[in-house]
Amino acid sequence: MNELLRRLLFLPRQASTLAPQIDALHYAVILTTFAGSALVGLVAVAYVIRYRHRPATPIPLAPDPAQERATRGVEIAGASLLLLLFVVFWVVGFRQFVKLESPPANALIIQVAAKQWMWTFTYPNGRGSKGVLFVPAGRPVRLSMSSRDVIHSFYVPEFRIKKDVIPGRTTEVWFEAREPGAYSVYCAEYCGEGHSTMRASVVALSDSDYALAIERLPPLELELPGPVYREPALAGTAPRERLSLARMGERVATEKGCMRCHTVDGTPHIGPTWLGMYGSVVPLSNGREMLADAAYLTDSMMDPRALIHRGYLPVMPSYQGLLSVPETGAILEYLRVLSKPAAATVNAVERAPLVAPDSPPIRLPSALTDAGSEEMP
Ligand code: CUA
Fold this sequence. Notes:
By secondary structure, the protein is of the alpha+beta class. It folds into three domains: 2-49 and 68-96; 108-222, Immunoglobulin-like, CATH 2.60.40.420; 241-350, Cytochrome Bc1 Complex, Chain D, domain 2. It has helices at 2-8, 19-50, 65-101, 207-215, 245-255, 294-302, 325-338, 346-351, and strands spanning 108-115, 118-122, 128-130, 132-136, 140-147, 152-156, 161-165, 171-176, 181-187, 199-205, 281-283, 289-291. α2 runs antiparallel to α3. The model is unreliable at 225-239 and 342-377 (pLDDT under 50). The structure holds dinuclear copper ion. Dinuclear copper ion binds at residues 117, 152, 187, 189-191, 195, 198.
């Protein structure tokens, strides 16, 4: 039934765990509206036949009160049923919306940067890819997205997800690919001349293939001075320096002067400490409270005087234009790692094995032959 309707409605594959639920609501709405319009059409035809003009029967001039009451009853029942139907659609849809907006706590976080006209992705190990997003299949993945220039929109039809990507802000979306495969990403917000070419692929791999794939990617290049972000000058003589994204965030934060006002050991300074900040509930000077998620923390970097942390002076300058999207992403990752339970500190993240000891070679889905495949054997 699901498959039949999916094909009838020309919907793409249901490649994420939420896709079947979203389609189920879509089917319910389509089928009830079809049934409703068919019913109206049939009644209209029946009435045309039944009440057609016949010379022999006179048209009654005064309405029959009993019949009028019956008609009113039918009208009220019909309107209530319709209203109830809309409420049911809305409630089911709202629950799906909440689900789509609430990434599971164990989701893998990947930073996404959009610019005219390409998508770049940065993984927790500090490596980056362009045009191809590698994800492990069967695990929730949470994308933390921002744009370098104009508004774009991250759209994966097969996952039934679409989310705007906005400069100076961080928006998030999550999904779980049901099985390994390659899925298309489109930009769904008109963003200039190259909008239609702004595509990418999501490549879902098994866990070990995923670990191997992101290990082979080149490190993220940040536009900061110093050799720490780049390959050593003499390739082959020194081992490649491996910085996790969190470690890069630490370097960026030091370089950009964040650490002059913020500490990471829990002591308040000119600004609040970063230890335990990410994911905590922050008291604001206006009496309200705010969850310090990626969106809030990005807003705090770009427009720090909009929402002031209670007990601190509004002295932080805006970092709009001073922090690139990858740098913002790296700082967010640093903040996130700083707030994980004690066992998982920055160092623990770096010590974690990136590749399973004897992982088999990557099997790329055959659909993926163009962008990014040059990284693979
Ligand atoms: Cu980016 Cu359209």
